[in-house]
Amino acid sequence: MDAYMIVAGAIACLGLSAAGSAFGTGYAAAAAVGAWKKCYAANKPAPFLLLSFVGAPITQTLYGMILMFIMLGKVGNVSAGAGLPVLVAGIFSGLGIGLSALFQGRAGAGACDAQAETNQGFTNYLAALGIVETVAIFTMVFALIALGKIA
Question: Which architecture, in CATH terms, is 2-148?
């Protein structure tokens, strides 16, 4: 039973992380398309840089994948009763990472609009997205520490 819970936790972690990335990239992509349309309508060049804002939330899927592999590595190598803690860690770390991606995409949407309109502030917008990304990185690192304590 523990092995099944570990696998379920690993899948939940990846799935929730990826769902957040899907929402985040979707929000940012919709904003980029709208910003490009405004540029074309005004006969202004459409900034290719907007794709960096669109792609930013995809990295959270990688963080979920890293945790998934660590969790799957525990199948068969843990003491009895370790399945539930890994399942809980998978759900909550996936949720934290996924929400980071979702809100990074929302911030990326605003960055797309601002960059296309003003053609200024690119570094500031990336810095703001990086701060939101840090939540996912912290979540992954702290989850790795917690998973290391599960024998």
Answer: Up-down Bundle (1.20)
User: b/e per residue, 4-13, with b = 16+ CB within 10 A?
Assistant: ebbbbbbbbb
**For position 7, what pLDDT does the model report?**
96
All structural domains of the chain with their residue ranges: 2-148
Q: How far is CA 4 from CA 13, 46, 71, in A?
A: 14, 49, 11
Query: Angle at which helices 59-72 and 122-148 pack, to 10 degrees?
Result: 10
The set of residues, in sequence order, having a beta carbon less than 8 Å from that of 62 and lying 6+ positions away, is: none
136, 64 contact by CB (below 8 A): no
CB atoms within 10 A of CB 40: 11
Identity of the residue numbered 20: G
List CB contacts of 74: < 8 A, sequence separation 6 or more: 6, 82, 86, 147, 150
pLDDT in tens, 75-86: 988 788 889 999
Nearest to 144 by CA among 71, 62, 60, 59: 71
Q: What is the pLDDT of residues 11-29, one digit of tens each?
A: 999 999 999 999 999 999 9
Distances in Å between the Cα of 50 and the Cα atoms of 20, 23, 63 are: 19, 17, 23
